[in-house]
Structures are given as structure tokens and as C-alpha cells.
């Protein structure tokens, strides 16, 4: 088992961490990491810190290692998380919005998201698309009936 390295805080670092903890005007994670570093510097074990703040010992260990390797600023912040990849390209979104603004197919008074999804796949605009993806895309635009005089679902004179 590798030896645990101790956290040694300078007085200015300790003061900064105490300010973060006391004011509470930071992100919850930053406050948690500040508590973690302060307790670790006081000699608490990872298990004690984890139990006191209801986190896993790995969370405590990672915060301590970030401090040792990269300093205080890195220890208080995480790397940005990438999130889910985009489902549609900009060109596909533009084509879908244009389709939604076009005249609905014969026998239909207006486009529904299901009908739009089926037609988009049939026309080859997208390889596959769920109605929910289309709903979210159209919600970003001003395409709700009654909101404006133009756009998908606008009533024609």
C-alpha cells in the first residue's frame, strides 16, 4: 500500500481555505474540498474525513492528491466534464427547422414531432431521430404556435 502524503498548508493557504468555508459563497464542491484540505492538514485520516462529510474516501484522496501535485487552485476545482455529445449537427438542425416550417404533409393540419421525425428519416435529413430530440430542438427556437407570426406551427391567413 503506497504511503499517504501529508497535506502541509502555508498560513496564507489556510486563511484562504478558512474564508471559503466560513463565507459559504462558493460552489458546494469547492467548500467541500476546502474542508477536506483543512482536515487533512490537521491529521485526519481519509476515512474520518469521508465519514464526517458523507463522501467516499476516494473523493478525499483525489482532492488531497490534486493539492499535492498541482497546488491549492487545482485542488479546489475539478476538470470540466465534457457532457453528452451532440446528437445533431448544425446542418441537420437547420434542415429539421426548415422542414418544421414547411407545409405539413397531405392529410395533416400541422406537423407533430413524431411526424417530423419520420419525415426527416424518410427524406434522409438524419439517419435517425427521436421525437424528444426534435421537441428539444424546436423548443430552442421561437416556433410555438401563438408566439409569433412566423415559424413552425404558425397559422396561415
Describe the structure.
The chain is an all-alpha fold. It is 55% helix and 0% strand. The chain has helices spanning 11-23, 28-41, 46-53, 57-70, 72-76, 90-101, 113-123, 131-140. The radius of gyration is 27 Å and the shape is rod-shaped. The mean pLDDT is 87.
Terminal-residue CA separation: 77 Å
Low-confidence stretches: none
The fraction of residues in strands falls at under 5%
Quickly count the helices: 8
Report the order of strands and helices: HHHHHHHH
What tags apply to this protein structure?
8 helices; mainly alpha; rod-shaped; 157 residues; single chain
Write the layout of secondary structure elements.
Elements: H1 11-23, H2 28-41, H3 46-53, H4 57-70, H5 72-76, H6 90-101, H7 113-123, H8 131-140
What would you say about this model in short?
With 157 residues, the protein is mainly α.
